[in-house]
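Protein 1 of 2
SEQ + STRUCT:
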Amino acid sequence: MLAAVLSATIVGLEALPVSVEVDVGPGLPTFAIVGLPDPAVQEARERVRSAIRNSHYEVPPRRTIVNLAPGDRRKEGPALDLPIALAVLIATGQLAQHAVTGHLAVGELGLDGSVRTVPGVLAVAQAAQALHARGLLVPEANALEAAAGEEVPVYAIPTLRAAVQHLQGTHPIQTTEGAVLDPPPEDAAPDDLAEVRGQGAARRALEIAGAGGHNLLLIGPPGVGKTMLARRLPTILPRLSGAEAVEVTKIYSVAGLLPAWQGLITRRPFRAPHHAASAPAIVGGGSSARPGEITLAHHGVLFLDELPEFRHDVLEGLRQPMEDGIVVVARAAGTVRFPARFSLIAAMNPCPCGYRGDGRRDCTCTPGRLQHYLARLSGPLLDRIDLHVEVPRPPTDELLSGNPGEPSSAVRERVTVARMRATTRAAACQAVGLPLRGPQRWGPVSAEALAFMRAAADRLVLAARATERVLRVARTIADLEGAEAVAVHHLAEALRYRVLDRWAPPAP
């Protein structure tokens, strides 16, 4: 007898529909799975047989063939266990085909028949919506995540037997309500900008970076608060919108990093990989094209501490995603595109020993060693970092003072208003058919400001990309101020945040 159950497998960040076909016929008692299964899918044979038997159903000693269509795409992971088991029960006459038709099922089976959590369920739910499925059968621990789509009924399945009884109508399972996007409570925030003492210039640069989505490089000796500042950037960014929360949750679900029983992620991501991480770990890739740290930081912050210590191929691999907001991973089996629209905040010491220009400790670096250290950062990479800011050692009196700084909530309000101004300007450009690149993005610029920018670009020998970045930062400063046109003082402040353009190491 032939049976078919609809399921899905993850390819990149999307779910590929899979038709699980089972044929049970006469012959030696074998159980074969075809259709490019990986080892985890092949092992489903033993899990499915034990789960069916321990759920008090019959596993007939007959020839069983499982086909996973389409047969030209590789199927990975144990998420196909549940649909395979349901198809076997249909093929052996223990469940009616019409009861399952139109439903999509995913889930790993335990030997006792329990249904365990699997990654990528939110992507599967989106695929079910596109297929107009009647219902989605998922593990209990994935139900809140799957219900974020709110268009397909989601049924939380605890066991294989419960799934069969639900489909037969003897013990129906209630649908899971969709997740509500409530902002996280303020008192639950792990960090707040009010904890930062002094560092006025760095705090200002952090606010500008948040308002314009700019990349930021903090340069200073050890222990001055660079990491502390970086960890507080997510707290001044606007709240995740509903669409952004779904995107972030989908990424973490596919990566297997979404905790069980969790719905939508409501906080902006903050990723801080170690400098020893490989290029596939940062950029994405590997044998099965998995999302990297830059994708896990989508709509959030990627923090690279000790920037010059990262491998050359890792740093150069960041250039295209920083420009385009996506990363393309090409493999022989196909090409996968991962979103990577993140804010980069990096930190580095001013020299290998860390104390160049400190004023309290002498620098022990030779000119040649210093030049080699700074040469680890290529010009094209630095051009893509909008703000380079020196973070000096704060006075002891400021550190010991009991006066808190401005809280993150106050800064977030200004950042949100500035982003709304930028969004309104972009919408106005689109309404009249103007491109969102070049002068249209910067808005009006006064004649005096243009003359000032020409002189500064010639004096500092700024590349075309660096010149554009300065104008973008000046536009953000104007938005924070509420000014319609970019003025000279906006450009002057933006140029102050280009430390490395005028900071050359001494000749060896």
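Protein 2 of 2
SEQ + STRUCT:
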Amino acid sequence: MFGFESYHILLAAVGVSIILAFWLPRFISGREPATSALLILAGLLGFSLIPGMPAALNPTLTPRPWEIASELCVIVGLFGTGLRIDRIAERKQWMPTLRLLVIAMPLCIALVAVVGWTIAGMTFAGGLLLGAILAPTDPVLAADVQVGPPHEGGEHPVRYTLTTEAGLNDGLAFPFVHLGIAIAAAGGLSLGLAGEWLARDLIYRVVVGGAAGAAVGWLLGKVLFDWPRENALSKTGSGVVALAGVLLAYGATELVEGYGFIAAFVSGYALRRSETEHGFHRRLHDFSESLEHALTAIILVGIGAALPALWPYFDGSHVAIGLTLIFVIRPVVAWLSLAGTRFERRERLAVSFYGVRGIGSVYYLAYAGHHVELVNEQQLWATVAFTICASTIVHGLTAGLVVERVTGEPQGGEALAKRPSS
């Protein structure tokens, strides 16, 4: 007798869902399809309609698998983002990124927290945590607006800014996640808690993350290209070294209490500075990108599958928070933070609007849920899930075309018109 194992039904359903999400858009568009929203929809329909499927993982009950899967996805994506950047830009081209990180992101966190308190009635810690979870842009789902792969160029200032912002702000949001968790655990904010947070979570961990990432990137460059020179690893052609490198950078940094997300990006960026014209960089990037896409697809299908479990906690306040962030808070604070830069008006608008939300937010909330008993945890998950869904639709369907027109560079390809950074 034939038997139908729910696990095998799950594998087949997820496989079909991912294939359809990538395949169907090609009937209506010649562009590389924006599949994120379709993957979420496929997960929702697959787990709702296909008989024999196992129960979807509820992130409010079992946050640990979500934490591990999204963590691996984000660090691989950050490492690959660092590898994408061909050149070290001058200070003026880095200035928009610094403004987005130092001005726009903290303002996003504060304003989302205020909206959470006033609209959803969240606690102080819950609102702050929600702001920290949703504030960073996502390096995984923002391929349409990033610079091209190694040696392909496409490093228009708009793409350069969005790429470097996404590469760094996941790690720089972590101090605020830690602050929200600490306040939730302590039941309030005190002077001693604030001082400890400032010294340990904001200064020490950021500095260690950057330094450790630079050191690992330099070491990987030596191992891949120089030691031994006559028989270097780069001659093997194996891109799996990219996974080994990001695991080393992330794990080693976390062992010394630094921010591994920062180290993952910086290590990829530092490695790219070694033997810059060597073709092995492209193989490393392509391997990490393939792995990143596979993990992202599974997580997005999982988000869709988990939506029915979150519906009972979903109301209009979550819609208001998500849409306010996407259409008001991020565009306005980013626009203001970019005042005085060399961006033209439409370039400034593009950078301000296209702050994609995604897998990093899943990780941060799962991390918080695993480490502390959260008040309003179900509401937090409902808000984050809605915001990711809305972002994948709004940004996913428009980002590639808009940024192409603003920059004059095709999606994911070589530049049609290269503009000097000055």
